[in-house]
Each structure stands twice: as C-alpha cells, then as structure tokens.
Amino acid sequence: MKNTYRMLFPALLLVSSLAQAENWSKFRGPTGQGLSAEKNLPAEWSTTKNVAWKVDVAGEGWSSPVVVDGRVYLTAAVTPTGGTGKDRSLRTLCLDVKTGKTLWNVEVFSQTDAATDRIHGKNSHASPTPIVDGNNIYVHFGTQGTARLTLDGKIGWKTKELVYAPQHGNGGSPVLVDGVLVICCDGRDVQYIAGIDSKTGKLRWKKDRPDVPGGKKFAFATPLAITVGGKQQVICPGTDVVSSVEPATGKEIWRVLYSGFSVIPCPIFVNGLVYISTSYGTPSVIAIRPDGKGDVTETHVVWQAKRGAPHTPSLLAIGDEIYYVSDRGVATCSDAKTGEIHWQERVGGNYSASPVFADGKIYLQSEQGKTTVLRPGKAYEVLALNDLEERTLASYAVSDSSLFIRTARKLYRIKK
Predict the structure, then answer these.
(1) Dihedral angle sign, alpha carbons of residues 37, 38, 41, 46
(2) Virtual torsion, Cα 306, 312, 313, 317, nearest 10 deg
(3) CA–CA separation, 404 vs 400, rounded Å?
(4) CA distance 49 to 62
(5) Domain 2-414 is of which CATH architecture?
(6) In the chain, what percentage of residues exceed pLDDT 90?
(7) Residue 285: which H helix or E strand, with range?
(8) Which residues make Cβ contacts (< 8 Å) with residue 382, sequence separation at least 6?
(9) Cα gap 204→248, rounded to integer Å
(10) First and final CA of the chain: distance in angstroms?
(11) Using an 8 Å Cβ cutoff, are 16 and 30 in contact?
C-alpha cells in the first residue's frame, strides 16, 4: 500500500497544495481519469447525513457536474412552459458551491419535438459533461449543438455543424486540447472525429473513421488527451477501432482494431500504456502501447482481459493496479502491467457512472443511488455503503473536500 500511494500523481498533490480547492473542470476531473487530490472527504452519507446542501435540478440530464473557483456548472434538458411532446430547452446552469443557490440558468439551444432524437432509457438529452477553461464554459448536446459561454452565462458562439444520425441520443463529452474541442461523432449512418476551434466555433477539421467491417457502427465515447514522446495525441475509441489523432489536424497516428460497438468508456493512460474497454458485444479491457504508427493491432496490444469488463463505466488506475466495475456490478482489481486479476467481487446493483479515486478511497456509484466505498489494494476491502435513494447515472465531481453527486432530480454536496 505504501508503494502504491507514493506513485500517486505528484502533480495533482502539488496542485492541491497551491490552491484551497481543486478544480474539477471536465468529465472525470483534472486528468480526465477520475483522480482527485482532495482530502478530508467523507466515506459515509445518506440523504441527510454529511449533506452540506441538496437542491432540486429542473428537467433531466446525466451530464456530470463540474466545479471551478467556487461555482458548479451543469447542463439540463427542460420541458419549456407550454411545450408539448418532446420539446426541450437545453440549458446550462451555474450554482454557488457554498450554498447550492442558482446563480444563473441560460437556454443554449431550443430542441423541438420534430428535431428530437429518440434516446435510450438510460440516456438523457443533456448527457455530455461541460468543460470549463479560463473564462469560458463549453457545452455539447450532440447533434443538437455545441456552444461556448462566458462564466457569467453569456453565449459566445453556437454551432450545429456536427451532423450525423445518433442511435440513442447524445453521449460522449468533448475534450479541449490547445484550443481545439475534439469530439467523437459516431452515428448509425456516419462515423467521424471532429475538431472545433474553441475561439470561433468553426470546424477546424473532420476525419472519417477507418472503414472497418462490422454491423452496428454507433458509439458514445469521450476522448482522452495524452502526451507521448513530447507530442500530444488524442485517444478516440469507436466501434471496432480506437484511433489516436493529432489534436491540431485530426491526422491519425495509430489505430487498434477490435470487436465492440456502442463504445462508451473514456480511455485512461498510466505507466506508459493506454487502457480501453470495447463495450458492447463481449467487452474486453485492452492495454496498448501508444508509441506506434499506423495499424498496430498485432504489435502494440500488451494484454487483453474479458472477465468483468465494463460496457459503460470507465476504468480507474491507482499506482500499479487497474480497477473497473461491470454494468452488472462486478468489481475487479488487476495488475496494470499484465492484466492478472488480484480480486473480483460482486458489489451489487447496476453501474453507468465511472469510478472515482480521492482521499485514499475508491467510490463506485450505482444506478440505484447506492455507493460502495473501497480501500484500494490487492485485497478487497469495503469501507462503507451509502444510499441516496434515487436513480443516478452521472459520475462524481470532487472539489473543496466535497463530493458533488447528481441524482435524477437533485444535486448533492456531500461533505463532513
């Protein structure tokens, strides 16, 4: 255990020491991998215990909250006054961290019944998570549009240039790299990766996915930006293929082929390896060396494991171990270098939210609103079980010694 913690991201610890509260500015936090340097977080809570505040959130949305400089940002799809059928007001909200009070609530797009995509029962019309960078917040609603707002809620630009036929509605979040919003656009008709200029909202590049054999083409993955050999690349999973691209141009660097569709989990990168889950079909966890060129399926796959691989939740790396939980509630700890399983246990429930590591604890949030808190390590140890008694599919935000948890109708700030 001591060796494990010594290897835990010293850069994150430095950020924590320099600021009163760590900013959680995008999906899965500062690194995009579910890791926080925050301390003094609770292990136990209920709908009343260790609740700093809880507030109602109008409408629906499974986007995760983001927390930056004392403010919480999230998106929601609200049925407008007088609206009928599937009309939705696609909105961005800003709340005060200390009180939960709404500071502003702005409509970004108006989604009419005729233009509304059919969504999966586990999806919403506001599922991608916002990104806060500098003085701006970027929000994405799939084919309904992408926008930039100021931190006071004023709209800078809007675009609906990303066109495809979504199978189950919007899903994956963008990633922001050197002024480019990189977005995976994988519909049932066309599949491509796009780069939008963050200053202007104009499409900077668009690259079609490789033409690989297979039936179902749609996917919902969130990309991950990494640096290899001093150069940035963006890892973009899709159906039957994961591609690494240059953020400035979209040019493909390498690809790995596999069998898997409706890919949802965000990749992770640790110890020089990229880890992905292939999602639906028969899911596999795959470890890849990201230093190749072209098709590296036969040369750069280090290991592959199928037992307990998730369809929906992303993976989590802590030191030399990889942790993941399947959609049906089987948690796994395996060796990051070899894939050898240390333990595998049924934690119960169903899972969509991605796990989070903070303050020496792993948090697994079930769709039923129950959280299993684990101690990381090669032995399985449950620290606490908690229940918010309401459906939740959103992943956590962590900031200011608090967990921010979105349920179907509420947003909680959990704090000792």
Answers:
(1) negative
(2) 40
(3) 10
(4) 24
(5) 7 Propeller (2.130)
(6) 84
(7) strand 285-288
(8) 347, 372, 373, 374
(9) 8
(10) 25
(11) no
Distance CA 415, CA 345 (A): 28
Q: CA dist 184 to 111, 148, 206, 246, 405, Å?
A: 21, 18, 10, 14, 26
- Alpha carbons 324 and 309: distance in angstroms, whole number: 7
Give the confidence band of 83 by pLDDT, cuts at 50, 70, 90: low
- Whether residue 242 is predicted with pLDDT greater than 80 in this model: the reply is yes
In the prediction, which pLDDT does 82 show?
61
- Ramachandran sector of residue 185 (left: φ over 0; alpha: ψ -120 to 50; beta: rest): beta
- Give the per-residue pLDDT at 1: 45
Domain ranges in the chain are: 2-414
CA 321 – CA 115 distance, rounded (Å): 45
This prediction has a pTM of 0.93
The answer, yes or no, to whether residue 348 has pLDDT greater than 70, is: yes
Residues 6+ apart with CB under 8 A from 42: 50, 403, 414, 415, 416
> What are the tokens at 219?
């996917």
20-40 per-position pLDDT tens digit:
789 999 999 999 999 999 999
Evaluate whether 336 touches 270 at the Cβ level (below 8 Å): yes
Q: Rounded distance, CA 291 to CA 170, Å?
A: 31
- CB contact at 8 A, 358 and 41: yes
Quick one: pLDDT at residue 84? 65
* β-pair partners for 261: 280
Cβ atoms within 10 Å, residue 36: 25
Q: Are 67 and 397 in contact, with CB atoms under 8 Å apart?
A: yes
Q: Please tell me the predicted confidence (pLDDT) of residue 115.
A: 65
Q: Which residue is it, tokens 């009419």?
A: 112
Q: Which of 112-121, 332-341, 352-361 has the lowest mean pLDDT?
A: 112-121
Over pLDDT 70: what percentage of the chain? 93
